[in-house]
Structure formats: structure tokens, C-alpha cells
Amino acid sequence: VISGTSCVNGKLYVAADTACLPPPKADGCTGYHYRGKNTSNKQMHAMRGTGHNKSDIDSVSKARVFIQQSHFADQKRSSKMRLISYRLAKNLEKMVDFYSQFNPSSLSIKQFIDFGLKANEQKSYQFLKKELPVRLANIMKEIHLLPDNLLKMPSVNLVNNWYTQSFNEMIEFEVDDGCTEQTLDKFCKILVKIRNRHSDVVQTMAQGVLELKDSHEIDLHTENSIQYFLDRFYMSRIGIRMLINQHTLLFGDHINSNNHHQHIGCIDPYCDVISVVKDAYENARFLCDQYYLTSPELEICKSIDADDEPIKIVYVPSHLAIVEHHKTDILPPLQVTIVKGKEDVCVKVSDQGGGIPRSLSERMFHYMYSTAPQPSKSDAHTIFNAIVFTILGYGYGLPISRLYARYLHGDLVLLPCDGFGTEAIIYLKALSNEANELLPIYNKMSTRFYKTTDHTIDWRSTCNHTPISQQQFTQTQ
């Protein structure tokens, strides 16, 4: 059957309600005879008496039956495909609901290191094939609680599809009880695929927020919901990537090409804090030189350890805001103080960039606030501009840095001195067994935050006659 036609005995017939017969061979008829869906037997007998031979009429009948059967078969296949798609969607929804009931397992750096030293791929596989769907499902449930206008943004929809696809790929292993070499190899490759797919999640979600700002007015409730969600969403992403990176670095194909022999996966248990500070400074300096055409020098003031041993930390953020205050080629240096106490490793970065008003200190950690120009699509044509605007234009530098510090129960705080400069203090856990993952959990309390539009005002200030809520008060502490 091609384009609604059928070929019988070398003749072409139209597959329609009135499929035409071939011209009669006898002289008793000069036109076409039609048989619709409701043609009766009497009509067929009448047609047989008009000069058509019986074989032609029987062939048309058979062709019509064949066409109808093909049409019904196509309809049946189409209905079956729709039913399968519906069932898959419903099944996916049920699977997400099921896995979101479980809390993610929070691990410590010590657990990561201890497990990495033993490096048992089968145990890692057995853990991750259950843990990753739980972490994905928990945050996927919160994605669906976002304001409808934000969910309709193309970039947000793209991120949602990435998570759905990754969740589907992970639950395929959940029902697989086998632990063969082929399964382990496939699992590792899927993890790499998921990591690559999610590599641009931060920028894409940020673009979605910009799309919302450009197309809709954003009220206070929507802004609070977005801030609350993005903190949890990006923290979840950090935790998921930590698990994936550990497994793929320990058991992936490129393990033998890793030059960092002392690393355990992506963790360096003997990382020199001064080297980390200098590396972060050089990266920030490169961007400053390219974007501002100048950059400050680095001055490490102190490196104190109660045990007189080198201080070991894993992460320190960069600071870029100093340049815009001093519009000259001579910039005061960045001063870095590093201290290791009994509980915390503290890294204090001090600048003379003019500081910020104290009223804006918390706004600096808001995803919808930035002092740098917002990026446009035309600005991201080059790799450098894409990097610069990812760090500056989206306004995500400080909030993302704070999440990385808080991920292992540390913190990042700003102490501004308006008119002079700002101090940024990073707190990290000194003991690896206390550096536990901080992970978002989907539950009734988190759901209630998205749905509550009127946060109770239980504090009042005469300044600007603006009362504040308990949540706002807590954020300022």
C-alpha cells in the first residue's frame, strides 16, 4: 500500500471510500463504478451485471479488504505506540516517586578516601546503581515544583530533559542483578556520558533564569523559590558529580594516564594549601588581565599551623571584585591569611576594592543579582567570553563558591567594609571524618516552601518601614 493506493492484477486502485473500478471490458458500461464502505451485496450484484468480469470485481473486493486491514493495522500500531509511550511516562513518574521516598546517603571525605584505597569496582557499582537514582529523583521532584513560567523556559526544559534521560539510564542497571565485566564497563561509560551531558547544567539553568527575567515580571515569592531551589539544585549536582568522578577516575579507561599518583579519585589527601591559593590566583589573574586589562598581586601574609606542619586543604575560591574600585594600573595586593585550628581550616582573602554596603552583603549570594553586565547570546560567541560571563555575568561566582564550601560542612562568609574593602573567609573542616556531604532532601517541608506564597512577618524594623520575615532575618545572620 503506497499513498492510499493498491495494485491488484497489475491495475491501480484508489484506497478511499469510493475506490474506482477499472473500465469495463464489455460494451454495456462507459463509466466508473464505485463501492463505498457501505456498499451492499445487491450493489455488487448490480455491478457484476454491467460488463465487469467477476475476477476484476473480486480483486477489488480483496484489495479493499487488504487496504482496510492495513489501515487498521497502522491504527493499531499507532495506538500501541501511544500506549507504550504513556505507560513509559507513567512508569517513569512512578519510579521517580519511588526513589524520591529515600534519603540520599551522606558520605564523608574519610569514607571516600577509605573506599578509594580499597578500590573495589563491584562494591562501587552496587552502591552507585542505587544511590544515584535516589539523588536524581530527589532533585527531579523539586524541579517540578518550580513556578510554571520558569518550567516553560526552553533552557530549563532542556535541563529537565537531561535529568530525565540520565535517570532512565541509571534505573536500567537497578533491575540488572548481574555484575559481569561487560556490565561494569557499560556502567562506567554511562556515568561518563551522564557527566558530559550535565557539564553545562549551571550555565543552562542560569540562562533559563535570564529568559524568565526577560519575559516575565518576577515577584518576591518567585524570586525566593528560585533562590531556594538553585541552592539545593546546584548542591545536589555537586554531590552527584562527586560520586561519578570518584568512580570513573578510579575504574575508568584513563586511570593509567593519570599523572596525579597521590590522588584518590578526585581527592588529594596531601594537597598543599599555598599551591592551591597560587593556582586559584593565577586563574583569576588571567581573567582579570583579559577582562579588566590589569590585576592585583598576591601577598600571602601568614601560614600558621598549630603543629608546625604544612596546611592541607582541598579548595579555595578566587576573588575578582578588586579591580573595578582602583581605576589605575597600581592595585593594592590581595592579602591571604591561612590558619589551621582544631576544627577548621580558615582561609581569609582581604582586598581593598572599596567594599560594599552591608545591606547588599546577602544579595551578593543571590543568583538573580550581579554587579557585572548580564551576558547575551552574542557575547558568548568566543570561548573566552563564555568563560568570563559564566563567572561574572550570571552572578554565580559567590553563591556557587559558598555551596562548594558548605558541601563538606564548611562555609563562605563576606565581611564588607564599605568604602575600603571586603574580607572573604572560607571555613573548611580540618578533620576528614567531620567533612560530611550536605545534601538536599525532598520532603513535605521542602514542598511547602515552594507552595507557600505568604511568609509570616514576625520581625519589624523602622528602617525604611520595611518589616522582615524570620527567613530573611536568619539569612542576615
UniProtKB/TrEMBL annotation:
<keyword id="KW-0496">Mitochondrion</keyword>
<dbReference type="Pfam" id="PF10436">
    <property type="entry name" value="BCDHK_Adom3"/>
</dbReference>
<dbReference type="InterPro" id="IPR039028">
    <property type="entry name" value="BCKD/PDK"/>
</dbReference>
<dbReference type="GO" id="GO:0004740">
    <property type="term" value="F:pyruvate dehydrogenase (acetyl-transferring) kinase activity"/>
</dbReference>
<feature type="domain" description="Histidine kinase/HSP90-like ATPase">
    <location>
        <begin position="333"/>
        <end position="429"/>
    </location>
</feature>
<comment type="similarity">
    <text>Belongs to the PDK/BCKDK protein kinase family.</text>
</comment>
<keyword id="KW-0067">ATP-binding</keyword>
<dbReference type="Pfam" id="PF02518">
    <property type="entry name" value="HATPase_c"/>
</dbReference>
<dbReference type="InterPro" id="IPR036890">
    <property type="entry name" value="HATPase_C_sf"/>
</dbReference>
<dbReference type="InterPro" id="IPR018955">
    <property type="entry name" value="BCDHK/PDK_N"/>
</dbReference>
<protein>
    <recommendedName>
        <fullName>Protein-serine/threonine kinase</fullName>
        <ecNumber>2.7.11.-</ecNumber>
    </recommendedName>
</protein>
<feature type="domain" description="Branched-chain alpha-ketoacid dehydrogenase kinase/Pyruvate dehydrogenase kinase N-terminal">
    <location>
        <begin position="107"/>
        <end position="268"/>
    </location>
</feature>
<keyword id="KW-0670">Pyruvate</keyword>
<keyword id="KW-0418">Kinase</keyword>
<dbReference type="InterPro" id="IPR003594">
    <property type="entry name" value="HATPase_dom"/>
</dbReference>
<dbReference type="InterPro" id="IPR036784">
    <property type="entry name" value="AK/P_DHK_N_sf"/>
</dbReference>
<dbReference type="GO" id="GO:0005759">
    <property type="term" value="C:mitochondrial matrix"/>
</dbReference>
<keyword id="KW-0547">Nucleotide-binding</keyword>
<dbReference type="GO" id="GO:0005524">
    <property type="term" value="F:ATP binding"/>
</dbReference>
<dbReference type="GO" id="GO:0010906">
    <property type="term" value="P:regulation of glucose metabolic process"/>
</dbReference>
<keyword id="KW-0808">Transferase</keyword>
